[in-house]
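ERR on first pass: missing label on line 2. Operator R.T. fixed the label and resubmitted. Corrected input:
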Amino acid sequence: MNQSSILDFRSGTFFAPIMVLYSNDLEQIEQRLQEKIASAPDFFRNSPVLFDLSELNENNKKIDVAALVSLLRQSGLFPVGIRGGDPAQEKQALELSVPIDSGRSRNDAILPEVKKKDDAVPQVQAVIREAVRAPAMMVTQPVRSGQRIYAASDLVILAQVSAGAEIMAEGNIHVYNTLRGRALAGVQGDTAARFFCLDLQAELVSIAGIYKTSEDLKDAPKKKPVQIYLRDQALIIEELN
Amino acid sequence: MARIIVVTSGKGGVGKTTTSAAIAMGLAKRGHKTAVIDFDVGLRNLDLIMGCERRVVYDFVNVINGEANLNQALIRDKNCNQLYILPASQTRDKDALNLEGVGRVLEELSRDFKYIVCDSPAGIEKGANLAMYYADDAFVVTNPEVSSVRDSDRMLGILASKSRRAELNMEPIKEYLLLTRYDPDRVESGEMLSLDDVQEILSLHLLGVIPESKAVLNASNSGIPVILDEKSDAGQAYADVVARYLGEKRPLRFIDSKKGFLRKLFGGK
Ligand SMILES: Nc1ncnc2c1ncn2[C@@H]1O[C@H](COP(=O)(O)OP(=O)(O)OP(=O)(O)O)[C@@H](O)[C@H]1O
Ligand SMILES: [Mg+2]
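pass 2 clean. output:
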């Protein structure tokens, strides 16, 4: 048997909302958390979560990590990381099998207040994905017929994409050449994803599941740089100049 | 170390075997010790085009299975003593080849050959994959028609993702385009894609354009690679291909329509 068929390690990204704490009052935290979860239960059910204590620690507000972790678990969340903790908090987290994340903090986007239940899920997802999306994936070789590329990020392609090829990205897609294949941006529902290419001859383009086929693209500008985005549930194709 | 060249296409009947025979002969004629291997197990064509079908005793599969050694199976070409043919077997099925065995044979050949030309079977399945897996260079043989271009594109994707070089993250296989059976008159009349049309889709390094030529059939009937027919258009076009592959500059020939030329000459449209 081939050794490599047992396991291998691949680089990948993993999405988790980041909960930044400004208060160390566990009761308040619990109440706010319940409200959040109620606003988007599908999104939060069994969701991994990373908690960020840097704000608290900067203001000298201490919190008991063990109590926080058990609160999160009781609320149906899976704590998967701690950020911005002091050494004692980090040690406490490790004892509870919660790993330490030393990644960037602060400049992550803030979860929006979600009011309406219906559109709550996509909105929350969109912002969170933006917050933790990996750096853009760069492709310098042509993408040929039969090949598929998936980027859990933005996707930048410097060569052509042939008919019969498929490129997908959770974020924006840029093709600095001719696009003849299928291209799907915002595949996890990011309706703000955009799509750019130098010559649009695609078999299909889609943003967040809303698509046009080559049939619908007949009248779109050819051999000209274009961008495509969503407005009111419709794909807008616009020449760039 | 040898340079391993795969002659491949995806689509069948486009001229891979014709090309393999011609370029292997061309390289050998220039003094490079060259082996050409028939990967089309079950069909066996290369030995006919090379005119050595009556001298086949052992074949590629025998060598892989350890039933014969390489020296027993290699056939020295009757026209050029720098050229050797490793024939395929007609009596086996396609599954007789395996990746590990092919690797062993190529490695052994690499020790005393300069170039190894692998004539791929059609398709994008196992046989074609085995033929391209160890390649350093790929000659992608394409006819000027949509289905052939599409299949070549597909093959290029496989070269870029499933070859040894791709799997080991080495420098990718060098890909070259060989446009064959090109008929400028039919291009002119719009029945066939033009060189520009094909290049717009594939954008590959062009090694040459081989015209549609009666010389090819004559050559294969007499078992002599067409490149040895030095007066023929196809023979000259293949000689240009070999020269370009070896780094020489040669202008493109045989791409303009005679009818079109006359029309231009007399000012008609
Ligand atoms: N330049 C040419 N001009 C005219 N006929 C050609 C030319 N090239 C190839 N042919 C003819 O096309 C047919 C197929 O050629 P060949 O066997 O080389 O193709 P192939 O790609 O190896 O086919 P397969 O996929 O079956 O292995 C043969 O009859 C050959 O004589
Ligand atoms: Mg053949």
